[in-house]
Amino acid sequence: MDEEYDAIVCGTGLTECIISGMLSVSGKRVLHVDRNKYYGGDSASITPLEDLYAKFNAGSILPEMGRGRDWNVDLIPKFLMANGELVRLLIHTGVTRYLEFKSVEGSFVYKQGKIHKVPADEKEALASGLMGLFEKRRFRNFLIFVMEFDENDPKTWKDVDPKRTTMNEVYQKYGLDQNTADFTGHALALHTTDEYITQPCGPTLARIKMYQESLARYGKSPYLYPLYGLGELPQGFARLSAIYGGTYMLDKPVEEIVFENGKVVGVRSGSEVARCKQVYCDPSYAPDRVRKIGQVIRCICLIDHPIPNTNNALSTQIIIPQNQVGRKNDIYISCVSTTHQVAAKGWFIAMVSTTVETGNPEAEIKVGLELLGPIRQKFVSVSDLFAPTDLGLESQVFVSKSYDATSHFESTCDDVLDIFKRGTGEQFDFSKVNHTTLGEE
Known about the structure:
Blueprint: E1 4-10, H1 14-25, E2 30-33, E3 45-46, H2 49-55, E4 73-74, E5 80-81, H3 85-93, E6 101-103, E7 106-111, E8 114-117, H4 122-127, H5 133-148, H6 167-173, H7 178-188, H8 202-218, E9 223-226, H9 232-243, E10 247-249, E11 256-260, E12 263-269, E13 272-281, E14 290-303, E15 316-320, E16 331-337, E17 348-355, H10 361-364, H11 366-370, E18 377-388, E19 397-399, H12 410-424
Parallel strand pairs: 1-2, 1-13, 2-10, 7-15, 13-19
Antiparallel strand pairs: 3-4, 5-9, 6-9, 7-8, 11-12, 12-13, 14-17, 14-18, 15-16, 16-17
Helix pairs in contact: 1-9, 1-12
Keywords: Cytoplasm, GTPase activation
Pfam families: GDI
Organism: Ramazzottius varieornatus
């Protein structure tokens, strides 16, 4: 560790592995260390199943659950938007050559005690049980407007200014009711609260458009998920970093981030100090540089049947908008199964998660758990959420945010691209990736 690096990355959570890959691709000399013996950090996939039971002190696995090594259980499961930033990163960096993806079968939203398929094209909107006949027509007109909307072409705006018109005003313009606004904002635009309603509509319209474009790629839902679990993603980006000269050290404790005159100069492990110009890390490596911004509850549920009322989908996402259950934050449900090589045949892994609002987190996800039907085993965790206390520009220590309760990667990608820009002073240039280096034809 006695060499000097442009950057040292601490932790192998997905955020840190993506950043490591991006920095290496951009020509930086990178050392990547993690105190754990495995990739993934908080976002690891646990296999065999016995290890998950041991982690939660849950006794022994049931004989009917098959072989423990047939299971790969994500601690923080999330889906990838087919046309989203993370897939763009995967494609442009060539990491897709290490991974296989399969689309998620269904995307659903909760309304007045029932779950409905999320309509994202005109045909589905007209067939949906979410809306009455006249509302369907209004929603169809809204979707057509969004698809044709181009922020750079005022001719497509139809009296909507993306920088001035609020999203609430757009809903009113198309006569959409509260329920339709709920699923549009939360299940299509993937906002986690209702704060967006009073803000300029441009970003929300772009999010809805991305949802529609993602859906157009695969048809059933806009989401993808890697075979063998999310643990494959950090390893894919680690390989990318290595190809571009990055050095990896697992099972390497980090005792101290070393500073001189308020600026980082290295990282100490035992008696060794690796010198560097910058450090990128998850909150656990810089506890004095983060603040707690809340908590998230996650409940991993093992079930031996598809989630009821999802057309027997082998994989699915359900969003429960906060308004529907009198909350400030949405509740998220994701479900995967043997179709993605993460569970034994006939078994499903469902996760229910939300941002904690009360002193009784388990009661907050009760409505989500009830949608799953009989649960054979559950593992509950409540984690603190952290955010950096500053941008890192003076110290050159750039700390990522904790993974939120959402069941998709959009907020994680925003964090990655923001950290990269703060650290390098520029947006990530996708054209810098030399695909021939990755062995592509």
